[in-house]
Amino acid sequence: MKTKISNYLSLCILAALGGGSQVAIAEQQASEQTMETIQVRGIRGSLKEALNSKRFSNSVIDSVSAEDIGKFPDKNIGDAMQRIPGVTVVRTYGEVSGVTVRGTAPEHSMVLLNGQNVASVGWFDLGGINRSFNFEMLAAEQISGMDLYKSVEANVNEGAMGGTVNLKTRKPLNMDANTVYASVEAGYSDGAEEWSPAYSGLYSWKNNDETFGVLFAHSVEESRVYRETLTAFGTPDANLFNDTNGVDRSSYGAMSSIVFDEERERTSTQLTLQFAPTDELSFALDYNFFELDNDHINSALFAVVGFGALDGNSVTENSAGVVTRGTSVASGPGYAPLFNNTVLRTPKMETSALNLSAQYKAEDWTLSAVIGQSDAEGRTKQSSTWWGDTAETGNAGFTYDVAGALELFPTTPSYLDSHDNFLLFHEFTYLTNVRDNEIDYYQADFSYELDKGIFTSIDAGVKYQEQLFSAYVDNRDVDITDAVNQGMSLADYNGGFVSGLHSEEGRAGSTSRFPIGTRGLWQYGAQNQATESIITSDFSIEEEISAAYVKANFEGDGFRGNVGLRLVDTDVISKGRIDGEPAKGNNDYTNFLPSVNLVADVSEDLLFRFAAGSTVSRPDYQDMQMAETISVSFGTATIGSPDLEPYKSDQYDIGLEWYFNEASVLGATFFVKNISDYIETTTVTEDYEGCSETCLVTRSRNVGTADVSGIEIQYQQDFGNGFGIQANYTYTDSEVTNSAGKTVPIDEVSQNSYNISGYYENDIFSARLAYNARDDWRRQYNNSGSSAVNDSYDQLDASVVWHVHDNVDISLEAVNILNETLKLKQPDFGNVVHSVDQFGARYYLSASVNF
Fold it and tell me: Tell me, what's the pLDDT at 35?
């Protein structure tokens, strides 16, 4: 049995104290070990400030600081996080949308804004409904810095067994009066071959007495997001085709060449008021609003093997018996083997955060309180159509090759030259995907300074949160029969052609040209939608979370740290529908989360760190929904699981950090996570009412365990001549033991990842070149039990800033310069390539003024 942290918290403290004589005493007294004030300006200044935060923290953290107002190191908050040791990122549409911290999924990390939870929703109707924060929502201009907490501290919100990211905005009383910042920018998408504008501004004021201040910031960024995809669907073992020679063949059932074309607008607004009537009393009101509109059209040339007949004389198989090359020939009128699928979506997401905080600081105690609310809503309207030549199917045959990147060879290439050849058939859907997230919180914290041996202060606090997540889909399909009878063809919505796709992977001899539709399809769908809706996926999750903590801070000759305990009680109400009738499930659980953080001075510049703590990560919303689908004839049932317990993690850190000058460090940290109650979707035989005594029941369950261990190595050096380097490497060994006793790597985790960036700056200009890379990583494909593996990925970014004047900068930034692609393979089927995503490079030219 694993030793529980609570059994040795006191031993850790005693060991630290008893070993004090073996640790070199720092020349500075502990009372002088406070963070120095740093004027942030330029790359070196931001790295120095971030390093300063790390060095003087009692816990294991890494920080990122803005170089100046409006100059965050990267275009996206997630892009900046990928430079931190132990962090890898998830790119869905080119930009970072989620982060993986130390071997845990994106939904197992948490994002705070100025120390408080932020509501979040996603837009993709086929994506999972989880707790992962969408980093695409946040503009980087308004963030002054961020801290990533990797170890547990009692006063930091629970909920993350990966890491807790605290984003920080600026405060007017901390800035010069009448501070002004403004910028304009033009962004270029290499894939879309189009420029897009962006602008941002900030104004901060305070009175002469510095007792009242106001800050307002606003930014708008328009961009063109363009993704080219080659993909197969399903798994070959699920598709057995009897070819024209009467032989059963294992093959992908469908393949597609896809263009995702998005017109994105991201808006951010911040308003902060501060009032400090006395030196002891202060108030702050913070309001932040983030909005993301990403209207897009997803155009695909689909090839479906089963809509024709597989030519037995054309088949090539790999060693796993999977067809890697074959020809699907037309078999008569019916569904076209080669067709166009056009999906239109108009997602709109909004997140707001409003909180009022107050603080009173007496001579030896401080009392602070926060009351606030964060809301998020997502509204995604979607229309989908299929178009193909259902009468003259002889034109729609094709040959496919999945031995490398997918290639499609139309039997009659001229078939793709006319929109008239694509008639509407099979589908015309119109739906609205609705998601809402509301968080209300109330928090009070008390700190008392004392002089009791090594203990310097006691912190204690309480927090109460009410969280509500709800989602449903409003289906209002268009009358497909009526639309077909009108003889609608793609020519009625002629969007031209796309060509020259997938340049990075190459498609020699195959076509990358096919006809596409227009957004005019949306208007037809909106005007001809059904009057009555069919509501599906209708559920809500209500959580009441009560927390209390106590933390003792200690300090002595050559050591400092804290020891604490957080108590959290969670009540859950899950509501949904079963057989069309309202249904409700309940759950509640209590967690005791101890923690200890210790920093010891081995020498004046060499620090030893130790941390241990327990934390939890709550289940995804989709796993907790109240739902039930029973098939008596098949003896199966799919059930929701509102009674799930959270993931539980006991985690440990031990490290050394050598600060060999004020802007340089060499360090290594070894980390371990032991995770229990791992959640897995399983199918087992149960005696289930309404089904049978031997019903095969599919539901999410707490059945697994996982272990993560690794080492982070960090090197940062300022050479003192304008040049500098920042580098890190992370090795992560992860495994999860599932309900069947099988041990596999944790999804989304790379074993090796590293970053290196070099910079040069002087009074005239600054430049940075940054390289990021990660090993291949595994993910489960489509809940089928089959694994898929992403190839290793690397990316090169660069930026140059010309300081035209003390107050004027002109900058050029390039992202994904080498146009790297994401490639997904399926090793269970001979390592065939399942999909390839190409985003293209992006470039940004901007001018800013700051005074």
Answer: 43
Contacts of 32 (CB under 8 A, 6+ apart): none
Q: What is the pTM of this model?
A: 0.88
SS (H, E, C) 496-549: CEECCCCCCCCCCCCCCCEECCCCHHHHHHHHCECCCCEEEEEEEEEEEEEEEE
Closest CA to 669 of 695, 681, 687, 651: 651
What phi, psi does 192 have (nearest 5°)? Answer: -80, -15
424 CB-near residues (< 8 Å, 6+ apart): 385, 386, 387, 480, 483, 484, 488, 489
Q: In this predicted structure, what is the pLDDT of residue 459?
A: 97
Quick one: pLDDT at residue 605? Answer: 94
Name residues of the chain where pLDDT drops below 70: 1-41, 94, 123-128, 331-336, 390-396, 506-511, 780-786
Q: Using CA atoms, how far apart are residues 419 and 734, in angstroms rounded to an integer?
A: 50
pLDDT given at position 127: 59
**How many beta carbons lie within 10 A of that of residue 18, not counting itself?**
10
In our burial notation (b when 16+ CB lie closer than 10 A, e otherwise), range 61-90 reads bbbbbbbbbbbbbbbbbbbbbbbbbbbbbb
pLDDT on residue 493? 93
Predicted local distance difference test score (pLDDT) of residue 22: 30
285 pairs with which residues across the strands?
Answer: 273, 356
**Nearest residue to 656 via CA among 641, 644, 669:** 669
Among residues 192, 213, 323, 198, the alpha carbon closest in space to that of 260 is found at 192
Dihedrals phi, psi of 573, to nearest 5 degrees: -125, 120
Contacts of 510 (CB under 8 A, 6+ apart): 401, 407, 408, 409
Q: What share of the chain is helix, strand, coil (3-state, %, to 5)?
A: 10, 60, 30
Cβ contacts of 414 within 8 Å, gap of 6 or more:
none
Measure the CA–CA gap between 164 and 338, rounded to whole angstroms.
Answer: 47
Residue 197: beta bridge partners? 186
- What does the chain come to in residues? 851
**Sheet strands (E) in 305-413:** 309-310, 316-317, 323-329, 338-361, 365-388, 398-401, 407-410
**For residue 117, what are the contacts with CB-CB under 8 A and spacing of at least 6?**
110, 157, 374, 439, 441, 465, 467
Distance in angstroms (rounded) separating the CA atoms of residues 248 and 251? 10
- State how far the Cα of 769 lies from the Cα of 795, in Å rounded to an integer: 11
Is residue 236 a contact partner of residue 252, using CB atoms and an 8 Å limit?
yes
Rounded to a whole number of angstroms, the CA Rg of the chain reads 29
Beta bridge partners of 58: none
Find all residues with CB under 8 Å of 437, minimum gap 6, and list them. 119, 120, 121, 375, 376, 377, 467, 468, 469
Which pLDDT score is estimated for 404?
79
Contacts of 421 (CB under 8 A, 6+ apart): 389, 392, 395, 415, 489
